[in-house]
Amino acid sequence: MRRNRINQVLEAAILACAALFAQVSFAQDGSKTSADSKIRNIDGVAAVVNTGYVTRKEIDERLAALQKQGGKLPDGATLRMTVLERLIMEKIQLQNAEQEGVGVTSKELDKIIGDIAAKNKLTVAELKTKIIDSGSTYERYRQMLRDDVVISRYREREVEGKLKISDAEVDNFITERNRASAIGGATRSTPAAKGAPEEIDVAQIFIPVDANAGAGTQAEAKKKAESLLREARGEVDFLQLGAMAAKDNPKIKFQDLGYRTPDRLPQLFYEAVRNTGSGQVASAVVKSPAGYHVLKVLDRRALAVGGPEQQQAAPQESASSTPQNITVTQTLSRHILLRSRAGLTDQDAERRLTGFRDQVRAKTADFGELAKKYSEDGSAANGGNLGWMGPGDLVPEFDQAMNRLQIGEVSDPVKTEFGWHLIQVLERREAQLTLEKQRQFARAAIRERKFEQAYQDWLRELRDTATVKIINADDPAASPR
User: Do the domain assignments include residue 73?
Assistant: First the structure.
């Protein structure tokens, strides 16, 4: 049931991107043409990007894909320029990646496509047929997927691989977390007098969604944000909740914004938390052009005359004594596992486990005895007992289903990469993290906090250093100049 976190996140990121692009077919013109050919076809070029170009046909196809998704879109000219800018950024990243030797082999690409087909319960041949039926070609799909993987690897190397996190940052993070989770959740700092300057420490869980996405995509993102908001109102560590959500979907981000005066908070955020007390969650999900935000006020404090630096000094002194104090919720559970194998369909496994569930709920059978008899993993001999597990110790699908259960409750059948599970929660407890686990958690949280800013800075730098000349983005490819 355990899984290497880094491999899981990378795999999920690639598969999530691949699955997204599998639904929306974007044409990528990767052909190499001579300078003379480019000149002859200049009417079809929307922008020259370094030594390459973006065609008006590419813009048209990207627009058609967005319109196929449905939903409200900006006016034609604005949307067309937005799409052009995205294509330009993709082209710049692909060009730089090629210069830096970042690529993907055909064998690796075949493996990724095989994984996508398997996740959708298709053979590769069936996936090819679906791609062709959607109006694209398999060759175009492979090229699109290759570009996506190359961009992901280049970004990982240039941004994620270069994020530096010092031991001092980790120590400070642990200190602040310990202070923010003091007993009772009461205000830990001296509150500001009415009307006096203050600083607010706000954390967020961010579910990104493109402003041009269809109504279905927008609704799904909003539903996820509202679900997280409900969970955040319970007895749960907010940043751990964010970490678990990000593990399930690497596109979700979580971060502690740190102490900021109101003028340094995004206006939308400040309006949402203006009347929210320390340790409280904002009353509603915040919608921004970038997506949906779940906000929590970790602390509010009076702004010292000497500024934030003066207030930061006190916690630093106790940093050496705090690492052992961070606690997490651990769950003791047991399960019955039916492994995926030839001859056992999903329907059969689900039906069998539903029968076991009904017997346990009706008290005509004991969960532990059923696990000993039918579970197909090493825990069977111990009645399916998995021991005490903390956030991130189990695969996301299992983790989420387990966390929704009350003590003694039995789940519906749950599918993971290992097969089908029936889960029962036996007990929960608050436990201190080991020093090593604390530091791992702290580094992951700090990395999430730093990544978004570093990524946006990197994109701006790429755009600023590229040679881009926009020629004609306004007319569709079929229109005369």
Answer: yes
Nearest CA among 98, 100, 85, 99 for reference residue 49: 85
H-helix segments, 46-75: 56-69
Task: Determine the Cα–Cα distance for residues 190 and 375; give it in Å rounded to an integer.
Answer: 54
Q: Let me know if residue 478 belongs to a domain.
A: no
CB 177 within 8 A of CB 288: no
d(CA 384, CA 232): 30
Tokens 């908070």, located at residue: 265
Q: Which residues pair with 427 in a beta bridge?
A: 332
Instruction: Examine the domain organization and report whether 365 and 296 are in the same domain.
Output: no
| 160-169 per-position pLDDT tens digit | 777 888 888 8
Instruction: Measure the CA–CA gap between 258 and 139, rounded to whole angstroms.
Output: 47
- Same domain as 319, residue 173: yes
pTM above 0.70, yes or no: no
Is residue 25 within 8 A of residue 140, CB to CB? The reply is yes
* 444 in a structural domain: no
Q: Which residue has the tokens 């993290």?
A: 433
Q: What is the pairing mode between strands 419-432 and 327-339?
A: antiparallel
pLDDT digits 0-9 by tens, 466-481: 999 988 767 666 555 4
Residue 254: domain span: 167-323
Q: Same domain for 195 and 209?
A: yes
